[in-house]
Amino acid sequence: MNFLIFGELFKRMNEGGAIFMYPIFLMLLTSIALGVLALKKGGEEASRFKELISHISLFALVWGFLGMMIGLITAFDAISAINNDIATPVLAGGLKIGLLSPSFGMFAFLVGRLLIIGLVVKKK
């Protein structure tokens, strides 16, 4: 069962463009690792980790949207080069693929923000 979930995850990551999806995945893992370290350490180091998580999660979000913009520009270039009518399933499939990287970037951003909220709550 778990192998099926990971297989589907990596299938979606490849569909969304490996150049954008895998760095977002690494940023997500880095944020989680920093969050765990910050929860263990506490004090001044936790504050530094919290700031770093904030920057990494925001970068993941923007990186995902950059992937969408580049993907959509490329797709629209291909569509404009075709003189015939484009099939609706082809257009819908392209839009779906274009939305994968910003969706994953938003997920990484939200995980990072949840970790920051956890660190703030732990500090109080």
Q: What are the SSEs and their pairings?
A:
Blueprint: H1 2-15, H2 18-41, H3 43-81, H4 88-123
Helix pairs in contact: 2-3, 2-4, 3-4
Task: Walk me through this protein's architecture.
- Keywords: Membrane, Transmembrane, Transmembrane helix.
- This is MotA_ExbB domain-containing protein.
- The chain crosses the membrane at residues 20-40, 52-79, 99-121.
- It comes from Tenacibaculum platacis.
- There is one protein chain.
- With 124 residues, this protein is an all-alpha fold.
- It has one domain (2-123).
- Helix content is 91%, strand content 0%.
- The chain contains four helices and no strands.
- It has helices at 2-15, 18-41, 43-81, 88-123.
- α2 packs parallel to α4.
- The N and C termini lie far apart (40 Å).
- The model has no long low-confidence stretch (mean pLDDT 86).
What is the approximate shape? elongated
The low-confidence runs, each spanning 5 or more residues with pLDDT under 50, are none
Mean pLDDT: 86
Based on CA atoms alone, the radius of gyration comes out at: 18 Å
Number of domains: 1
Tell me about the largest β-sheet. Answer: none
Q: How many strand segments?
A: 0
Order of helices and strands: HHHH
Oligomer: single chain
Strand content: under 5%
Percent of residues in helices:
over 70%
Question: Which structural category fits the helices and strands?
Answer: mainly alpha
How far from one another are the termini?
A: 40 Å
What is the overall number of helices?
Answer: 4
